[in-house]
Specification:
Distance between the termini: 60 Å
CATH class of the largest domain: Alpha Beta
CATH architecture of the largest domain: 3-Layer(aba) Sandwich
CATH superfamily of the largest domain: ANL, N-terminal domain
Helix content: 25-40%
Number of domains: 2
Number of helices: 9
Radius of gyration: 20 Å
Order of helices and strands: EHEEHEHEEHHEHEEEEEEEEEHEEHEH
Shape: globular
CATH topology of the largest domain: Rossmann fold
Length: 334
């Protein structure tokens, strides 16, 4: 049986959310309502069932069999919000596997100590870990959206197997995984994918009760259950008749620009929409370095404005583009 441990800095609310999740798991109830993170629109409640939850855990277990022996008593840490699917399923996996579970406060740099067989983090948390903390990790599952080139290069050097997951609340967490340096995701057992005429991903997973789930994620299907994620259809910027995919621009820029940021669209009288770059606050804005970075992009992909602000994130650690657009509307001069 799993043992639940709390870090001394966990407040009463954090402890209660873990205890409530354990109580639901042990109760045998068939349904659970959970809120989405809001990365694709307004947060909404989703009704999950136990069969789908157990099928998701079983698929991850089959994947994990090649990473470590699940028959022994392992140890995991919960560093994500258990009101959302990523943190909640981290706890459920630990319970299903009979592992010891350490619950930590939700913060950018978790106070991890000792060894953990499996941990789920968002990129901002992973980037904040020390070398000693990395030494204690066996497998790290990253969610929270795509990595920048700088983040990927840093994380690749760590002494831990790092995998990225693709999924959402409606799919009972990840339906596909990939190694850090791979471009394509591989579907888990029981999952099949296709795409509609616009290139948006369609997911089928009968074990989880998922049938023809149409997403807003643009993908390149590569056969044998593999696909490359290209970005979100509703994030595409239509500027002067050209389609600008924010993720493509972000990945290109961050090979030559060392600061975190992302692209949003603003309405523009002449171009229809204009691309605006939101950057973390900089102590010394190097105009020449920025212009050199822009030179690597076609002229039509280049941001028309540069805005420094505290970068907004969703609860799951993804860029909050809706909030970013509002901030850019107030700060950008176009």
């Amino acid at each position: 049986m799993s043992q639940l441990n709390f870090h001394p800095d966990c407040d009463a609310s954090r402890q209660q959310s873990a205890k409530d999740a354990v109580a639901w798991w042990e109760s045998g109830q068939s349904h659970l309502t959970i809120s989405t993170s809001g990365s694709t629109g307004e947060p909404k409640n989703i009704d999950l069932n136990r069969q789908g939850i157990e099928a998701s855990i079983a698929a991850t277990e089959r994947y994990a069999e090649g990473l470590f022996p699940l028959g022994r008593r392992g140890r995991t840490a919960i560093c994500l919000d258990m009101h959302h699917v990523a943190g909640l399923f981290s706890l459920f996996r630990g319970l299903a596997w009979g592992w010891d579970i350490d619950v930590f406060p939700i913060k950018r740099q978790p106070d991890l100590q000792g060894k953990y067989d499996w941990i789920s983090l968002i990129p901002q948390q992973a980037m904040a870990l020390t070398q000693d903390q990395w030494q204690g990790l066996s497998v790290c599952l990253l969610g929270g959206g795509p990595l920048s080139t700088l983040e990927r290069d840093h994380l690749t050097s760590q002494p831990c197997r790092i995998i990225q997951g693709y999924g959402m609340t409606e799919t009972y967490t990840h339906i596909a995984l990939k190694r850090l340096m791979d471009e394509s995701y591989q579907c888990l057992p029981g999952v099949s994918v296709s795409a509609d005429d616009s290139g948006c991903l369609i997911i089928d997973c009968p074990d989880r009760g998922i049938h023809n789930l149409l997403t807003t994620d643009l993908v390149d299907l590569q056969g044998c259950g593999r696909f490359q994620w290209l970005g979100r259809a509703d994030d595409v910027i239509l500027s002067a008749g050209k389609k600008i995919h924010p993720e493509v621009v972000e990945n290109s820029l961050q090979k030559h620009w060392s600061h975190r940021g992302f692209l949003v669209a603003l309405d523009h009288q002449q171009w229809g929409q204009a691309a605006v770059w939101l950057s973390e606050p900089l102590e010394d804005f190097d105009v020449q370095q920025w212009q050199k970075a822009l030179a690597h992009l076609p002229s039509w992909q280049r941001p028309k404005a540069f805005v420094q602000c505290k970068l907004p994130l969703t609860a799951s650690g993804k860029w909050d583009r809706r909030k970013g657009r509002s901030m850019a509307q107030e700060l950008a001069l176009l």
